[in-house]
Amino acid sequence: MSGTRPKQVNTIPRSRRIGRRALGALALVVALFTLLVSTGFASATTLETIRARGKLVCGSTDPLPGFAQQNKDGRWSGFDVDFCRAVAAAVFGDPDKVEFRPLSGASRFALLQTGDVDLLARDAAWTMRRDSGYGASYVGASFFDGQGFLVHQSLNVVSAYELTKVRVCVLDGGDEVLNVRDFFFQNQAPYSEVLYEDRQDLAVAYQAGLCDAVSATASWLYAMKRELPDPANNLILPERISKDAFGPVVRDGDDQWFNIVKWTLYTLIDAEEVGITAANIGSLAAAKTPAIRRMLGLQGTFGAAMGLSPDFMKNIIAAVGNYGEIFDRNFGTNTGVPMLRGQNALWTRGGLLFAPPVE
Amino acid sequence: MPAKSIALALLAVVSLSGVADADTLANVKARGLVLCGASPETTGFSAVQAKGEWTGLGADYCKGLAAVIFNDPSKVQFVTLQPDERASALISGKIDALADLIPWTLTSDTEQGLMFVGTMFYDGQGFLVTKASGLKSVRDLAGKQVCVEGGGADEANAREYFDANNIAATLVPRESRDAAVAGYVDGTCAAFSANSSVLAGVRATLATPADHAILPDLITKEPLSLAIRQGDDRWFDVARWTFFGLLDAEELGVTQGNVDESLGSDNISIRRLLGVEGDFGGEIGLNKDWAYQLIKGVGNYADLYDRNVGDDSPLKLPRGLNALWNHGGIQYSPPVR
Fold this sequence. Notes:
Chain A is an alpha/beta fold. Chain A has 13 helices and 14 strands. Chain A has helices spanning 5-11, 14-38, 46-53, 79-92, 108-113, 128-132, 175-187, 199-207, 218-227, 255-274, 290-295, 312-320, 323-331; strands at residues 56-61, 69-70, 76-77, 98-103, 119-120, 136-138, 143-145, 147-152, 166-171, 191-196, 213-217, 234-236, 244-246, 249-251. In chain A, α4 packs across α10 (255-274) and α4 (79-92) runs antiparallel to α12. The longest helix of chain A is centred in the first third of the chain and has 25 residues, at 14-38. Residues 1-23 and 30-41 of chain A have low confidence and may be disordered. Chain B has helices spanning 2-19, 24-31, 57-70, 86-92, 106-110, 153-164, 177-185, 196-205, 233-251, 259-262, 268-273, 290-298, 301-308; strands at residues 34-38, 48-50, 53-55, 76-80, 97-98, 102-103, 114-123, 125-130, 145-149, 170-174, 191-195, 212-214, 222-229. In chain B, a hairpin with a 2-residue loop joins β2 and β3 (53-55). The longest helix of chain B is centred in the C-terminal third of the chain and has 19 residues, at 233-251. Chain B is globular and about 60 Å long. The model of chain B is unreliable at 6-20 (pLDDT under 50). The chains are: A alpha/beta, B alpha/beta. At the A-B interface, α2, α6, α7 and α10 of A face α1, α5, β7, α6 and β13 of B.
């Protein structure tokens, strides 16, 4: 195109050239404006885009049992899925106005940047690189985790410090294998590594008896354990040899949306702390406790500054329950493979979950 | 030509009015100084000027910002503000960050244009009592008088808590905090109630601080937090990771005292933090040794805590919730990697 353009200019009568230049300038102005719009200066906000579309688009992990899975009717469920529904409830008052898009590892941040998804419900663990690069930010931690070991009961160990002369399945090329090396070196215990590149392969190898233990972030181990034919005969040892925090991620450039997703998470945590549940929310209209009344929209006005209705917190809790209810639904005894709250208990109960108050 | 100059002029106007101003880090670098708003209020927490130098958790954090940007913690200028000017000073660009810690709530987070960076001190409302009284918990306040500043949150919170927990304490609201303290000192009240940060400051001014104790129970949560303005993601990253760097350094045992020898550590996490391995600062406009400069300049979180509000300060506040997550508290930061 640039090659043909000079010829065209020469064919234009001199009297019209200025007009053409002015047009060019206009085009430049338009382009400049478009640039501003596309950088978020005057564009439709994420909230407006979602409202116009009529649904939230949520990127979630490629099926990870307990966190995100699809039943045979195609309905999604899981801890991360419930968080997406909570955001849909905050925006629309309807937890079903959401589309789930399972993402593989490679495409997760780009689809967020391009606007194909509105948020990532769960992704790689929160690190400085992921928080500051890729034009995205973690709104906060919704799940505290760390690298552990999954072993069969027949190994007769209850602590990672008892592991010796074992074959450990672990992902190659990342921090996981370095953490394993550090651990066994510090513990002065002999072991051997069985390396794979894919999470699914770890489970296959472990089940086939190619290794005695799998080392990975504990939520992966939990998901793996759920898929085993005999989960009760396998255990995740209590030690954690790394710290990993997972949480919702949004793209940069829209602090209103950052705040909406952040306060959806905080609402779930605060609701558990003050004792509002999906089960009791209908009977709390006469509650006297100010902290409860504020969350239910009965006292004060919250939400308008974020473009949400004053009952957004009530809608969230009524739709998916509080953090503890979500945890129990997806990881509780009803699943047959219960997970301890551990670090994911409230700060008032020995855990790390804390949210600023609704005031 | 005129059209082109119009376009250029437009570009210049646009740059001046919006886009360039949104790049706080570039402005700070061009100015050669970080501007931090300070409205001296509470010793140890907000910035206070003593002997010509600004101190406090938030003031040290501002010096930390200067250290990561300029390799020099002294490249910060404190701008004195009234508390009600904080948000407007941030939004207008008069300052880059606050040296005061702000209670993080849904309202303060969404209605003032502030962007919270992290919680520097988990505070809450508590009770100051004399050790001689033998009072050990809030329940022991039944039948006692409790002095409190009247008309505000302190009174409302205490009333709500006593009601909800059926504790028959008598609240004695006074017209000011000083008057409430006076009621405690003259023996009218067995306890004085306010945020623990305030109680520690009051205790330090009493005749014999060691004769007074803060009860372990806190009846509210008040996350005293660092804030910048909305609308600048890179500055948010700089501010957030400066805070996280303080916490990561404490967790990895890197202190102001040993940061130079830590450069030779074999620990991969320490090597990454200090920029010996990899470059984690470049993405946000910092040098790869940003955290080394931070810790060299102001220390790690424990250094800041001990110096300003902990054992090495007159406040002598225990770490409590502000201990690291792996030491019984809830201070937690994602890793530098």
